[in-house]
Specification:
By secondary structure, the chain is of the alpha+beta class. It is built from 11 helices and 33 strands. The strands form 8 sheets. The chain has an 8-stranded mixed sheet. The structure holds zinc ion.
């Protein structure tokens, strides 16, 4: 008995410990890249030597491994080409352009040799994915060395990376090297590249790029050999390197990708911020660029100040705004943006891509699965940054009280088109580019805006900061951001995540009637949810004398309520059970004292029909 009992007890303890650790132990793979790249600017080709130290921090034994070979997408009949030629609303930057690429215009990444710890590793190229059978399985906790020789050709620019973009920038080098696919708690993410979204392994990059001496190179990471390169990289002093080429040695600690760009005509300026963070700007001088690019550094200095204070402190000491690419795209410690823009447009794209340093480059969500967590959160914060810059008089435009309100109307209009799809769809698999775009950028931003409504402005704001500080340098998922918000507010919020992310349901609250209560000096407001999603309901009662009273009706499943925000105190009404279509709110005020009653006068809640949201005494 004693023995059996002991056995049971230890089994139980063992089981409990295992379960506990499976739920609470976060792990992520780690990687160290060392790359030497030799670039030929005449052929637009390069060769590379890559050494990767890969550490398997997962509890699983890995027998295979995958690399992304993104440049292979830029070949006629690739998945990206077919997708672009068959989707209903193709991106005009891609359209059918890949199908017309000539052999010297296509992109490719070719593997010349691959070894694991010195043993040749067999591999198969499947479009943009390299499938590798490992000679030696990687055990949990073990590290392995992967050595590769590769060569590549830079495609004529179609999307994001490539050569000779429409503004004449020679090389926009993103997704240019064989990049290990990420393995996490959801398994492998060896997604074929069809034009959007990335997910990478956290690690350190040392990248040495050898290129014609006339080209200036900027990119992710800190330049290690400023004296050799000289010029704008070393206070105008001539570089010590000689010969026809220059080797730029970059080191980037704790990032999950590496981008660079090169052009013989780059003008390169820097601004050192008060905290030592150095901002770099690279652009081709001209009528369409110079004036605005000279104003950009001062404006971005102010943007950094506001962003650091509100969304978490930028953890690197360098950021580069580089003219290149095909619009704007975010990378670790820098961005590639087109540069021939009005000042407002240049600042807009710069702020958006910079904001991605928080939502994607530091809070590295899997963009393929949760594009809305980086595009949406970035859009949310960018709207506030832009409003601040307008307020400071640094860019033109009207300062608005709430920069998120316009998203509500925009989104509800899109919903009417019938094209909306749930946020939970994999970014590559949305039926239309429009559904992906509105879902990721707008509904993703509204995800935060709805939380701001549910939690109240101050609690939400501190929650967003807590999210950054809890999850920086990791891969947060939707549950992680919701859990942080739950801890910050003390409210249960799983219902919100489930409705908002996995469905397209929305609430539609309305006032059905207002009448004198049975008890003297009370008023009863009859409310109804005609929609398909529950939400807590804020009610503003305006008295005849102009005074206002604020009520909030929490959902029972929130297990709590918003108490106050923005100087307002809410009277917390009894819970509204989500099963009940209707609800009666009793006000301790005689009806004759009331001038009007309105549901959510902040207009933040995504209510599909606001026509029935208010009642006026005159309407009786
Ligand atoms: Zn973005």
């Amino acid at each position: 008995m004693g023995f059996i009992r002991l056995l049971y007890t230890s089994l139980f303890v063992l089981l409990a410990t295992t379960l506990l650790s499976a739920q609470s132990t976060y792990w992520q793979q780690s990687v160290k890249y060392n790359m030497d790249v030799d670039f030929d600017v005449n052929k637009h080709q390069f060769t590379g030597d890559q050494t990767i130290i890969y550490t398997n921090n997962s509890p699983d034994t890995l027998t295979r491994i995958f690399y992304h070979l993104y440049f292979n997408a830029f070949q006629p009949n690739s998945m990206m080409d077919i997708r672009s030629r068959t989707i209903r609303d193709a991106d005009s930057r891609v359209a059918d352009r890949i199908s017309g690429l000539k052999p010297n215009e296509i992109g490719y990444q070719e593997v010349e040799s691959l070894t694991q710890d010195g043993t040749p590793a067999p591999y198969v190229v499947a479009g943009t994915i390299l499938e590798v059978e490992l000679p030696n399985a990687i055990l949990p906790g073990a590290s392995t060395e992967l050595k590769m020789k590769f060569r590549g050709q830079v495609p004529l620019q179609i999307r994001r990376s490539g050569r000779d973009n429409r503004e004449g920038i020679s090389y926009s080098m993103a997704q240019w090297y064989p990049k290990l696919a990420e393995y996490d708690y959801q398994g492998w993410h060896a997604n074929p590249y069809i034009a959007r979204e990335f997910h990478g392994i956290w690690g350190d990059f040392d990248v040495n790029i050898t290129i014609d001496k006339d080209y200036l190179v900027g990119g992710t990471g800190y330049l290690q050999n400023k004296e050799e390169i000289g010029g704008t990289y070393n206070d105008g002093k001539p570089g010590t390197a000689t010969g026809k080429t220059r080797t730029y040695r970059f080191s980037a600690p704790m990032v999950h990708d590496f981008m660079w760009a090169a052009d013989p005509d780059y003008k390169h300026t820097t601004l050192t911020r008060a905290d030592g963070n150095v901002l770099h700007f690279y652009y081709q001088e001209g009528d369409a660029t110079t004036t605005n690019w000279e104003l950009l550094p001062g404006i971005m200095d102010k943007a950094f100040e506001f962003i650091n204070a509100n969304y978490g402190y930028y953890p690197y000491k360098k950021y580069s705004f580089i003219q290149g690419g095909d619009g704007g795209m975010e990378y670790p410690m820098g961005t590639l943006i087109t540069g021939e823009r009005s000042l407002n447009s240049l600042v807009g794209v710069s702020v958006h891509e910079l904001m991605h340093s928080w939502y994607q480059m530091v809070l590295a969500t899997n963009e393929s699965l949760y594009a809305w967590m980086d595009e949406g959160f970035t859009s949310y914060a960018s709207d506030e940054v832009m409003n601040y810059l307008r307020q400071e008089g640094l860019i033109q435009g009207d300062v608005v009280a709430d920069p998120h309100l316009s998203d509500v109307t925009g989104f509800l209009n899109f919903v009417k088109s019938g094209m909306e799809e749930p946020l939970s769809i994999h970014a590559d698999h949305f039926s239309t580019n429009a559904a992906y775009g509105v879902g990721s950028y707008v509904k993703g931003s509204l995800f935060l805006y709805q939380l701001q409504y549910i939690l109240g402005q101050e609690t939400f704001k501190s929650g967003l900061l807590r999210y950054f500080n809890t999850w920086k340098f990791k891969h947060p998922n939707p549950n992680d951001v919701i859990r942080v918000m739950e801890k910050e507010s003390g409210l249960e919020l799983d219902w919100f995540k489930e409705y908002f992310v996995y469905t397209t349901r929305l609430p539609d609250y309305g006032i059905e009637g207002v009448e004198e209560g049975e008890k003297k000096k009370t008023t009863v407001v009859q409310l109804k949810n005609s929609g398909t999603m529950p939400m807590p309901v804020d009610i503003t009662v305006t008295m005849v004398n102009g005074d206002k009273e604020y009520y909030t009706i929490p959902l029972g499943i929130m297990r709590g309520a918003k108490q106050a925000e923005g100087g307002k105190t809410y009277q917390v009404a009894p819970d509204w059970p989500w099963t009940n279509p209707t609800y009666e709110l009793t006000l301790d005020t005689a009806i004759k004292r009331i001038s009007s009653i309105e549901i959510d006068d902040s207009r933040r809640m995504l209510d599909t029909d606001r026509s029935n949201n208010s009642w006026k005494a005159d309407d009786k």
